[in-house]
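Blackboard transcription, Thursday session:
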Amino acid sequence: MTRKLGPALLFLAPALVVLLAFVVYPIVATIVFSFQDRTGSEFVGLTNYREMLTNPRILTAIRNNAIWVIVVPPVVTTIGLVFAVVLEKVSYARAVKTILFMPMAISLVAGGVIWRLVFEQEPDRGLLNAAGRAVSSVVRSPGPYPGAAPSEGVTRADGALVAEKTVRPGEVLALGLLQLSKSEVPVQARPAALPAEVSARSVAGVVFRDFTPGASGRRGVVDRGEVGLPGMLVELRGGPVEVAGSATTDERGRFEIGPLPPGGYRAVLAASNFRPAFEGIEWLGPTLVTPSIIAAYTWIWAGFAMVVIGAGLAAISREVLEAARVDGASEWQTFRYITAPLLAPVLLVVLVTMVIYVLKIFDIVLVIAPSGVQDEANVIALEMWQTAFGARNLGLGSAVAVLLFVLVVPIMALNIRRFRAAEGS
Amino acid sequence: MKRFRAAPARLALVVAAVMWAVPTIGLFVTALRPQRESVRTGWWDVFVEPSQLTLDNFAAIFGSDFFARSIVNTFAITIPSTIGVVILAALAAYAFAWNVFPGRDGLFIGVVGLLVVPLQMALVPVARLYNALGIFGSIAGVVLFHIAFGLPFAIFLLRNFFAGIPKELLEAARLDGASEGRIFRSVVLPLGVPAIASLAIFQFLWVWNDLLVALVFAETRSAPVTVAIQQQLRQFGGNLDIISAASFVSMVIPLIVFFAFQRYFAEGLLAGAVK
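(Written on the board underneath:)
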């Protein structure tokens, strides 16, 4: 073994020079700059740090980064653990693993673009809201007449439209609606017609579009040229809630409900007729933007956690697991008392790695957050870039960088300790 | 553990695989649709109307000086950054692993400490340095920065691997009178190929996918494709044709590298699970 510095130096010099010039010296310089003014010409003491801890933009960034650090590492680790455990036992694991791992290869810029498409608010274009609309149309189907307003003789009540007069069996009603454009009227609609006759024990009527094209129709009355509104759910209520009967209108807008016991009834066009279609959740609006970006980031990094944890699982000796099973341990007991403790160091590595990456989170926020909500989605690294290079405030930008640095120092110490322990020195 | 073969676990896996594949497919399909369709309907509309598929967006990308150049720039930044890191780190790692010199352990612990330094700590001073040297905005500046911040991890990874080379091999070579340079070239490098491959793939993807460093140190003529995409984002809907096609193009090389060298990539990640 060579014990001289000479030959070693030849090997080391290039790397050390680059590290000194581009990493070590800049660290020192950034710390110095953080005590200087925006151009780096004068020392200003702690001004930048005071500014950093009072500026609402920077405080939002710090708060968001705290959310990132608290949420992402455990979530990514848990999902990775589940994937790793489940995939250990299936035959087609390789293919699934490749799919789950793939996002790690692409840039956060491309990943961000992918998810910005998914988060698009308009359900016609955004995948997530399109899925939301599909689900909601099953769970809460939108009504056929979302935009309708009451005409004369009808009033609104809790999303439903209610006839103002009470009716008795044997009577006929005309319920007019307004503010329906031609395209909102179903194609099968025919000219409105009052039922010709009604039995003495039922209530009959018509629901119609109370608008006469090109002529002055009377409100609340079926005029020539007005169309019936088919598919409308009409209920008759004996009391405030009690439904005595219901019917759906035909293509002329007619309905008949009966037989009914004698008494006074209120006709109600149920709220479900007017329920608006799902309009899409504003995933990238001010409230949901950070959770949405976190979801996208989790999608990217789950594969990483899966691979690292999977390698950890593979390293656990088969004999130990077999022995436990032979001793009669259940699946859960084997996992709880053997796999989990042996896996703990690996889980810690994944958690710590995620904390480091998440502290420095930058690209994906810049790409996914639309410019209008970038302040709400702000994180420390983004703020550092904007302050130092957008606003050209060198002192404050450096102070924000130092904040980031201080936050990783504990991890740096942990790394060094772990390394020392591994080397046994 | 046969119970895991149960239907719910299988179903969950299929759902997961779909959730992980579909968003990316969505981007690919969007890149193949004209803008007038993309503003109107979602990409899944191609299943109804496959005739809308077109390569126009790619023609637009490669026909634009800015984008075509940004793709060339991405190569021009990534290749030297990868080669540079591998060479400098292999040399240093050899010294750390097999030369005994005063202060070696302390120096190496310093390298371990640098593993997690956020590169934000260097942006302002290096930008000023580049200004003073007149290389701000050049590809060389971006490359140098990438090499510097790739080095701690690269040295760490290679040193650990080199340290595992059997001592006898090196001592035999030394007894034969081989010089340090010769031992490095003909013993350590050939044996270190797996680790060097992992490192090279890791660094290649890292630099290829970088946005921040290029955003700070590059300018229009030296911008890589990530920066080119980022600059179109203000008009996300309006520029979707360009954005999706450029994103598609930017993903092709990493995906090829990924599928060809998945194992090395995973190993690099495992080793780097401290960076």
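Lecturer's comment: Strands of chain A lie at 149-150, 154-157, 160-163, 172-178, 203-209, 233-237, 243-248, 254-257, 266-269.
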